[in-house]
Each structure stands twice: as C-alpha cells, then as structure tokens.
Amino acid sequence: MSKRQPVTSAVPQGLVSGPVLFNIFVGDMGSGVECTLSKFANHTKLCGVVDMLEGREAIQRDLDRLERWACANLMKFNKSKCKVWHMGQGNPKHKYRLSGEWIESSPEEKGLGVFVDEKHHFFPTEEEKAPYLRSLLSQYPPAGMTQVTQGE
C-alpha cells in the first residue's frame, strides 16, 4: 500500500476551468503523431490503417512517441488497461509494444456504452442495455412516451 501524501494541487470536480486545464495539459500529446489520436478524460485511442507494413510501423512509432510524452510529463500509461483491437477482414493482427511490453489483443472495443466486435457488430452488455436504450430514447422524445427503467 502507498504512503499517504498531502495533495498540493488539484482542480475540484465540476469547475468550468477543469476541461480547459485538461485541454491545456494534454494539448501537445498528439504532437508528431502520424495516426489518428482521440483524447478523452479517462482514456486515449490511437487508430491507424494497417494494410501494409508501413501502417504497423507508424502505429508502433506513435506508441513510442506517446510513451515519451507520458514520461516527459511525469505520467504513465496503465499498461494493464491498454488493448489492441484488430478490425476488418484480412487484418494481419500485428503485435505492438508499450514500454517494451506486448499489448494484449481484444476481440471487441467499447465506446459510448456499446461493444463493437471485429466484424463490426454492435451490442450493449446486459448491464448497459437499459441505460443504452434510455440514452437512445432521450435523443428522440415523442409526446406521451413511457420512460424505460431498469428492473432489479
């Protein structure tokens, strides 16, 4: 267990300045990245086309570049949460490293509460069906619609 340390700086949750500070802090994360980089508050996605060896090498260079960025900013990627998702027919399913360790491959990817498998089939998990349906229905609220609730 870690030793307790006083917190010397923080941004209280819910402040308007929080997202601004987040964008300032991670704004340069994608500098020099060749592939598509998506940054979110709690995760980052790197996507690239791997129809030839050059695509595989570009993804690996970008992973190395992101690792150097994290080290320079006194951060670490949680390697146990890093996954490679191969999609599309004929994907060569190359392996990639982060800090010299192989990244585990995953048969599906989760985004916005929905899983997508390598054949592009979309499906919510059992626990997420009600919130997923609720979010879909909230986008198109016709008059007199009954609210969908999750049973116990």
Automatic annotation (TrEMBL):
The keyword Transferase applies. Keywords: Nucleotidyltransferase, RNA-directed DNA polymerase, Transferase. One of its GO terms (molecular function) is RNA-directed DNA polymerase activity. This is Rna-directed dna polymerase from mobile element jockey-like. It comes from Limosa lapponica baueri.
